[in-house]
From TrEMBL:
A Pfam family recorded for this sequence: DUF2070
Keywords assigned: Membrane, Transmembrane, Transmembrane helix
Transmembrane segments annotated in the record for this chain: 25-47, 53-73, 85-106, 112-131, 143-162, 174-198, 523-550
Domain DUF2070: residue ranges: 9-547
Highest taxon of source: Archaea
UniProt-recorded name of the protein: Membrane protein-like protein
Length: 551
């Protein structure tokens, strides 16, 4: 998914451990951090802390403020999950430990004072930033208060232990508190400016988008232009019926925003019918310009799925590798079903192959079988010299299919519904056995490739495809293995179910709906530019903060 330039989200998403692990970890780390900090102060400072202070330090400094904050964040911001709340507290517990080690190297009382207040301000800013990104900037007033609770508890503990005995004037105390408030105000101002700039370009709140993606909310984007995309339907009937929907719509941009959950919604609907009937989603070669603006328009897509007329004769699967791209396809009556794969290519503009082709005559499917975690970043643009070359290869391959003779057609199929939907289709034509393995992911994991390699000993051709789903940012970030057990079960069932069959293709346009089109570019470009500006601004803020406190 590299070409869409939103894969930065993958680097920010990971599995948050359950509370059953976080709470014991917080207690154990409180003890460990206290022991290490005690040892550092004993070794590197002229202080001689009493061993009896170790337990109070562990409880009052390294444990209670973070237990308090972990529960408070979730209580005051109910939409913020408790596991995330305690994980943020664990992060700040580590920040405290790092600053404690730095503090053990302070060369005078003034530097020690600045390090301590840098710690308080750092924790406050981390809380503000994380909570705004996770829940939205509209709640900034509540966030400013709840984010202050953790550093406030640490300030109270600090003054209880040592803060009142350092001999600083009232001005220094007021200056330190003012610095904390000024830094927080400046951070909120930076975030508000970022949100304003993105809203002005795309009419979308940056923090509504990020919080929704992180929490897997479902929301419409007020973007795009009206369109009526084609929805192609390939149906196979061997007594049971398999319906394969191939809308000229891209599953995206991410999560519940727009059409990110399109493939799963389509698969759900196609498998919610009569017993024995099933369905799956096919990804056509298109880009994020074809993303749905409104997730509810998945229903509009489904309304265009049709029941095509079917024939009982088809050609053998024809394959040809042109170097830049490979095609696999068969003729069904006077129509064609073609699968493509371009190594190193993520997406294609819709016009690259289909600018002069009737969708009711040709189904073109992008296998999208790149590695899920290390996918390509190149996108082929319509009108480019590369697009012209691929188009010539496509037209040449279609000519090859036109000359392919027809034979009796037989097929078996199976769809397995799990957390990761899979499908298998086995086609038998003139003694040629072909296996198609499909999985509702954004690319293929190594274990699926290994499974396909194993089955190549049993079949003449094995094609693997993914739906290019963008339903789950967590999946995009963390999936390294697939449900090969369910996929194997589907393949075995499909193999056993092979019987004389009919197959047909049709196409129908949808009712008007909104696709992002060029608004997607505005959204992504704005987000990517402003992410970098935000990072630079935050780095400058922190540098100024250090200078302010120490000099």
């Amino acid at each position: 998914m590299g070409a869409d330039n939103v894969d930065v989200f993958q680097r920010l998403v990971f599995s948050v451990p359950p509370l059953s692990r976080q709470l014991p970890a917080m207690v154990i780390l409180a003890v460990a951090y206290s022991v290490l900090a005690f040892a550092a102060f004993s070794a590197f400072t002229p202080l001689s802390p009493e061993l009896s202070t170790l337990l109070p330090i562990a409880v009052l400094l390294f444990l209670l403020p973070f237990l308090f904050a972990g529960e408070l964040f979730h209580r005051v911001l109910p939409e913020y999950p408790r596991t995330w709340s305690f994980f943020l507290a664990l992060l700040n517990q580590f920040v405290l430990f790092v600053h404690a080690l730095v503090l053990s190297g302070a060369n005078d009382v003034g530097n020690a004072w600045s390090i301590v207040w840098l710690l308080f301000i750092t924790i406050y800013l981390i809380n503000i930033l994380v909570l705004v990104v996770s829940t939205g900037i509209d709640r900034y007033k509540r966030i400013l208060l709840v984010a202050l609770a953790e550093p406030a508890a640490l300030i109270v503990a600090f003054y209880a232990f040592a803060g009142g005995d350092l001999g600083f004037t009232t001005y220094r105390h007021v200056f330190a508190f003012a610095s904390l408030l000024i830094a927080a105000a400046f951070l909120v101002l930076v975030l508000a400016i970022v949100d304003y700039l993105i809203r002005s370009n795309t009419d979308v709140s940056a923090f509504e988008l990020t919080s929704g993606i992180l929490q897997n909310d479902r929301a419409s984007l007020d973007l795009g232009i009206e369109a009526e995309p084609a929805v192609e339907t390939l149906a196979i009937d061997n007594g049971d019926q398999l319906t394969l929907a191939a809308p000229w719509v891209h599953p995206g941009p991410l999560g519940g925003f727009g059409g990110g959950q399109l493939s799963g919604n389509v698969i759900d609907a196609l498998n919610d019918g009569d017993e024995g009937d099933s369905g799956f989603f096919l990804h056509v070669p298109c880009t994020h310009k074809e993303d749905l603006s409104n997730p509810g328009d998945a229903e509009t897509i489904l309304d265009a799925v049709a029941d095509p007329g079917r024939v009982d004769r088809a050609s053998r699967l024809v394959s040809h590798d042109y170097g830049e791209i490979e095609f696999h396809g068969r003729r069904i009556g006077d129509k064609q079903v073609i699968f493509l794969h371009g190594e190193g290519i993520d997406d294609y503009d819709t016009g690259v192959f289909m600018s002069d082709v009737d969708e009711s005559e040709v189904l073109l499917v992008d296998l999208h079988k790149h590695d899920l975690q290390n996918g390509p970043e190149k996108e082929v643009l319509y009108g480019s010299s590369e697009a012209d070359l691929l188009k010539r290869h496509f037209d040449d391959f279609r000519d090859l299919l036109d000359d392919a003779p027809l034979y009796d057609y037989a097929a078996g199929f199976a769809v397995r519904r799990t957390d990761q939907d899979v499908a298998a289709i086995v086609e038998s034509v003139d003694g040629q056995e072909v296996l198609l393995m499909g999985i509702d992911t954004n690319g293929i994991t190594p274990d699926v490739r290994e499974l396909a390699a194993d089955y190549r000993e049993s079949f003449d051709e094995v094609l693997v495809f993914s739906t290019d789903t963008h339903a789950s940012i967590h999946e995009l970030a963390n999936t390294t293995r697939s449900d090969t057990e369910s996929l194997t079960e589907a393949i075995e069932h499909a193999t056993d179910a092979v019987a004389p069959a009919t197959i047909g293709l049709t196409s129908r346009t949808t009712r008007p709906l909104k696709l992002l089109k060029n608004d997607y570019n505005g959204l992504v470009f704005s987000v990517n530019i402003l992410i970098r500006l935000t990072v630079i601004s935050l780095a400058m803020l922190y540098a100024l903060l250090v200078i302010w406190l120490f000099f």
